[in-house]
Specification:
OB fold (Dihydrolipoamide Acetyltransferase, E2P), 353 residues, binds magnesium ion, binds adenosine-5'-diphosphate, 31% strand, 10 helices
Length: 353
C-alpha cells in the first residue's frame, strides 16, 4: 500500500474529541500600517482539503505563514491538534509548506531534495531511501531520483516539491498557490493529481491547507473554503454553499459573477446559469436589453441591462447558436426570468451602500 513506509500517525483524535488540526483564534498580523490579517477565526478538521481563497493582497499567504510559524501574530492564537503553538518555531510544528516557486535545491539530485527533511530529522539512510522511493511512486515519477531539478519540466518540479513535503508525513500540509506557475492545461491535470495524491496518503491522514486566488480551482478541489477579503474571512463553507449561497456581495462577485439586484428594498443575487433569457422580448420575466455579448466557445455570456435598473449576466450553452448569431444579438430586447428559490439575499457589508 502507498502509505506503509510512512510513519504511523499518532492517534490524536483519540485524545482530542474535536479532531481539529488547525485552529486560528482572533489572529491579527500587521506590517506597519497594513493590516494583513485582521482577527481571523478558522478551524480546519483533520484530513480536510481546506482552501484559503481571495484576491491578491487579501491575507492568504500571511495566514499560511502564521500557521507554519514563519510569522508571529500580533494578537490571537494558533493551535495545531489542539495545542497552542503560537510561540513555537516552524521546525517545532508538525507542518510542511509547498511554495509557489518550489524552492528546490538546484545542486542536489531529486532524491536528495526529497530526502532533505528526513536527513534533518536523522532518519536512518535505509529508511530514507525507502520512503523517497515510495513517495516518488505516489507522485508517479519513480525514475527521476538521479536527475537534477533543472532536468525536469515545470509540472515535474511541482510534483517533486510536493513529494519533498509529503515524505515527512506532516500532520498539516500547507500549499501556497502551488500550481500558479503552470499553464492552464497542466494546472487542471495537477488539480486532479493533487486530489488523487491526497486520497492515496489518506491513511496517514494529511490535512491540506491550500491557498489560491483562482475560484474555479477552489471550487474544484476543496472540501471547504474560506473566502478572504482585505485580511478578513467573509464566508466559510463547502464549494456548493459558497457558490450557491454567497453570504456577502464580495463573495457573490469573487466566487462567480456578482449579479446583484435591488428590488422592493431587497438586495439579492442570482447565478447566471439560473436565468432564462427569452430572446423575443415578450412574455414573462423582467424586460431589458442585451448590452454585451462574449462568445466563449462552449457557451455565450450575455450582459443584460434591465429596464427597472441594474444589470445581470446570463450564460447560455451554445446548443444551436453560432458565434455570429450570438454576437448579432447585441442590442436586442429580451426578458429575463428566474425562480425565486434561485435568488439569495445579500448581507450589507459594514454599512456600505
Ligand atoms: P495574499 O497572499 O492574499 O496575496 P498577503 O498575505 O501576501 O496576501 O498580503 C496581505 C497584505 O499584507 C498585503 O497588503 C501585503 O502587501 C502585505 N504584506 C504581506 N507581507 C508583508 C511584509 N513582509 N511586509 C509588509 N507588508 C506585507
Ligand atoms: Mg500570496
Amino acid at each position: 500500500m502507498a502509505t506503509q513506509t510512512l510513519p504511523e500517525r499518532r492517534s490524536v483524535s483519540a485524545t482530542i474529541p474535536s479532531a481539529v488540526d488547525v485552529r486560528l483564534l482572533g489572529v491579527r498580523k500587521t506590517y506597519g500600517d497594513v493590516v494583513a490579517v485582521d482577527r481571523v477565526d478558522l478551524e480546519v478538521e483533520a484530513g480536510e482539503f481546506f482552501t484559503l481563497l481571495g484576491p491578491s493582497g487579501s491575507g492568504k499567504t500571511t495566514t499560511l505563514r502564521l500557521i507554519a510559524g514563519f510569522e508571529r501574530p500580533d494578537e490571537g492564537r494558533v493551535e495545531l491538534s489542539g495545542v497552542d503553538v503560537t510561540s513555537r518555531a516552524p521546525y517545532e510544528r508538525d507542518v510542511n509548506t509547498v511554495f509557489q516557486d518550489y524552492a528546490l535545491f538546484p545542486h542536489m539530485t531529486v532524491a536528495d531534495n526529497v530526502a532533505y527533511g528526513l536527513r534533518v530529522k536523522n532518519v536512518p539512510r535505509a529508511e530514507r531511501r525507502q520512503r523517497v522511493h515510495e513517495i516518488l511512486r505516489v507522485i508517479r515519477l519513480p525514475d527521476v531520483g538521479d536527475r537534477k531539478p533543472i532536468q525536469l519540466s515545470g509540472g515535474q518540479r511541482q510534483r517533486i516539491a510536493l513529494a519533498r513535503a509529503l515524505v515527512n508525513a506532516p500532520k498539516v500540509l500547507l500549499l501556497d498557490e502551488p500550481l500558479g506557475a503552470l499553464d492552464l492545461k497542466l494546472r487542471q491535470e495537477m488539480q486532479t493529481e493533487l486530489k488523487r495524491i491526497q486520497r492515496e496518503v489518506s491513511e496517514v491522514g494529511i490535512t491540506f491547507v491550500y491557498v489560491t486566488h483562482d475560484q474555479e480551482e477552489a471550487l474544484t478541489m476543496s472540501d471547504r473554503l474560506a473566502v478572504f477579503n482585505e485580511g478578513r474571512i467573509e464566508q466559510i463553507g463547502t464549494p456548493a454553499d459558497v457558490y450557491e449561497h454567497p453570504a456577502t456581495e464580495f463573495v457573490a462577485g469573487f466566487v462567480g459573477v456578482s449579479n446583484v439586484l435591488e428590488r422592493d428594498g431587497r438586495r439579492f443575487t442570482v447565478r447566471p446559469e439560473k436565468i432564462q433569457m427569452h430572446l423575443d422580448g415578450t412574455g414573462a420575466g423582467e424586460p431589458g436589453r442585451i448590452r454585451d455579448v462574449v462568445y466563449v466557445g462552449m457557451f455565450t455570456r450575455y450582459v443584460v441591462e434591465l429596464d427597472s435598473g441594474g444589470e445581470l449576466t446570463v450564460v447560455k450553452q451554445n446548443l444551436e447558436t453560432s458565434s455570429t448569431d450570438a454576437l448579432e444579438s447585441r442590442g436586442r430586447p429580451v426578458r429575463l426570468e428566474w425562480r425565486p428559490e434561485h435568488t439569495f439575499d445579500m448581507e450589507r457589508p459594514g454599512g456600505q451602500a
